[in-house]
Design a protein that fits this description.
The chain is mostly helical. Helix content is 69%, strand content 0%.
């Protein structure tokens, strides 16, 4: 109650309130079993540690003594405080008293002592377990409090070096290749050779615990690649992974650190098997493991907590497009999703680029709220800018975000979000320069990005499924039929263009463009009327030509032929000969006819008297 005593003297807290808090604390404490420092030599309760202040003092005193005499009791104590909230309570008290760094430094010394003891010739397995549990507790503390808060900047212990070089943390990402640089190929070969044996035992390897922790990343890489190539079966994989965590749970943590770093950079199609390996480490302990391996339950509890936090910090869970993973949750924050997006967006604005942490959070928001919600709110944030440089930078960032699922985001923008700005009288007021041009630019960027994605996906798929060529042929034949049926209209021009370019717009982009051009026909100013919608349509066509180059005609192929003349009548000063010449395919009769029509109309509009 040292905090309340000064408040009572200042009359901020009344005596009755102080008595109430005292009684409440005594009631809580009476439910907990008291643990005195002398209990370090005996059993420690598995529920809570009461009177944590003297308990912490006793732990620090014991860890400050001769480890040769106290190692067994310290090992028992560390195993017993892992369960429940006992460890968290001790760490919380150490934080309040300013002794957390002292606690960590002494635990690191104990870990170094255990490492040396376990490296001795013919050292019993219990020495390895002491190193294991102390290593796991240190990992957990670093994850909860941060390496900067609890470790020395230039600490030379094995654990501190491993954290700096190999352990990914929230906001601190590691390169998987950089982690592998610490590995020794000869040690990896020996490690894999013994791990592949059914009766694997570290006593037969002459490898030290720190060698195993450093080189297990290279081992898990070879195991992963062998599994991907079909060189080992799933049963062999499970046996080797179980052997790793049974001998030392810290090996599973070290391997998972590399796997999380690898998942962070590898293509999304290749993350399934690395995540499956991590999930195997997280599988529930078997009855044999619990009964035949000393203190395996306690070490497994810490191991699973650490690995799960590694996953969530480095690669927050999200739902894959292929639905290959059945993850139980989408949201990775207690904040409302709009507040999450706002805070992430503010961070992106400050940095000026889309960083990987923001990408993971936005990906989770996309899977949680859907593309329409994400596109709507990102567009609102973009249109808040007033300066051209800020608007251009914002569009680039938004397009990068949309590439999380470019097809669905483009569809949401064209079918649901953009019509609100074109038809809603309130939102239509935002279609002023330069926001109108920026919105048109964003739409065009998304259309071409979705088109490129569709083309690249078709090329990739055609390598696996040769009959896709017949599907493309059917689509071309269908276009030919439509062209012949519409042979008396200039729209036939655009179908022949799409065919000649060898590019066919497929669903869902095709339907989205059809609906967009239908809206343009309704909104284009009639009789020379100029509206915000008219200006937007012109900006859209202009950006489509500028950004698309030769593919502009493919995108504009289903635009009704009367839209361009209508725009020329409304905005003659905005058009020029070069723009009109790039709207049509001049190699076709219809293209030359429409070009001549529009050029003549533009000349007449400029020659008319003011």
């Amino acid at each position: 109650m040292s905090l309340l005593d000064p408040l009572v003297k200042l009359n901020v807290v009344a005596e009755s309130q102080l008595a109430y808090f005292n009684q409440k604390r005594e009631t809580k404490d009476s439910m907990l079993q008291k643990l005195e420092p002398t209990g370090l030599q005996g059993s420690v309760p598995a529920y809570f540690i009461t009177r944590a202040e003297p308990t912490l003092a006793g732990i620090l005193k014991t860890m400050g003594g001769d480890f040769h005499k106290t190692q067994d009791s310290l090992h028992a104590m560390l195993c017993q405080i892992v369960g429940g909230t006992t460890l968290d309570t001790i760490l919380a008290v150490a934080t309040v008293e300013g002794k957390l760094k002292l606690f960590v430094s002494r635990l690191i010394k104990f870990n170094e002592f255990a490492l040396i003891s376990a490296s001795e010739k013919n050292a019993p397995q219990s020495k390895v377990y002491i190193f294991d549990i102390s290593f796991l507790i240190l990992c957990s503390i670093v994850q909860d409090y941060g390496a900067e808060a609890v470790l020395d900047e230039n600490g030379d212990s094995f654990f501190e070096q491993w954290v700096r070089e190999c352990m990914p943390q929230k906001g601190v990402h590691k390169s998987p290749e950089q982690i592998l640089q610490k590995c020794d190929s000869q040690v990896i070969d020996i490690f894999i050779h013994h791990l592949s044996a059914p009766d694997f035992d570290f006593k037969n390897t002459n490898l030290k615990p720190h060698d195993l922790c450093i080189n297990v990343c290279g081992v898990i890489k070879e195991i992963l690649f062998a599994w991907e190539q079909g060189s080992i079966s799933s049963a062999d994989l499970k046996r080797m992974l179980d052997s790793l965590r049974q001998k030392m749970a810290s090996l599973a943590v070290c391997a998972s650190s590399w796997l999380c770093a690898y998942v962070n950079v590898v293509h999304q199609d290749a993350i399934l098997k690395p995540i499956n390996i991590i999930q195997q480490f997280l599988s529930a302990p078997s009855e044999v493991e619990l009964t035949q391996i000393d203190n395996f339950k306690e070490r497994a509890i810490l191991m699973c907590q650490i690995i799960r936090k590694l996953q969530y910090d480095i690669h927050p869970p999200s739902v894959l497009k292929a639905k290959t993973l059945n993850l139980s949750h989408y949201i990775v924050s207690k904040q409302p999703i709009l507040e999450q997006l706002q805070s992430v967006w503010d961070d992106i604005k400050t940095r000026g680029y889309l960083h990987i942490d923001a990408t993971h959070i936005i990906d989770s928001l996309l899977n949680t709220a859907g593309p329409v919600w994400l596109v709507t709110n990102l567009l609102k944030q973009t249109l808040k800018f007033r300066y051209q440089d800020d608007l251009d930078r914002s569009v680039d960032i938004v397009v990068a975000i949309f590439h999380l699922d470019i097809e669905k985001c483009s569809q949401a923008l064209l079918l649901y979000v953009l019509p609100q700005y074109l038809y809603n009288a309130k939102l239509c007021n935002e279609l002023v320069e330069p926001q109108s041009a920026i919105l048109a630019k964003l739409c065009v960027y998304c259309i071409y990005a979705a088109l490129e994605h569709s083309i690249s996906r078709k090329v990739t798929t055609s390598r696996k499924r040769r009959h896709d060529d017949s599907e493309d042929l059917d689509a071309i034949c269908s276009s030919n039929k439509v062209r012949r049926l519409n042979d008396n209209t200039s729209d036939a021009l655009y179908y022949s263009q799409g065919q000649s370019m060898g590019i066919i717009i497929k669903e869902p982009l095709q339907s989205a463009l059809e609906m967009l051009f239908k809206s343009f026909s309704q909104l284009a100013g009639k009789n020379g009327d100029v509206t915000p919608q008219t200006q937007f349509i012109f900006e859209f066509i202009s950006y489509a030509v500028q950004c698309g180059q030769d593919r502009a005609q493919v995108v504009l192929q289903k635009m009704p032929s009367e839209i361009v003349p209508t725009l020329i009548k409304a905005l003659p000063d905005n058009f020029n000969t070069g723009l009109i010449l790039r709207l049509y395919d001049l190699s076709t009769p219809y293209g030359r006819k429409d070009t001549a029509r529009d050029l003549c109309l533009l000349r007449n509009m400029r020659l008319r008297p003011e």
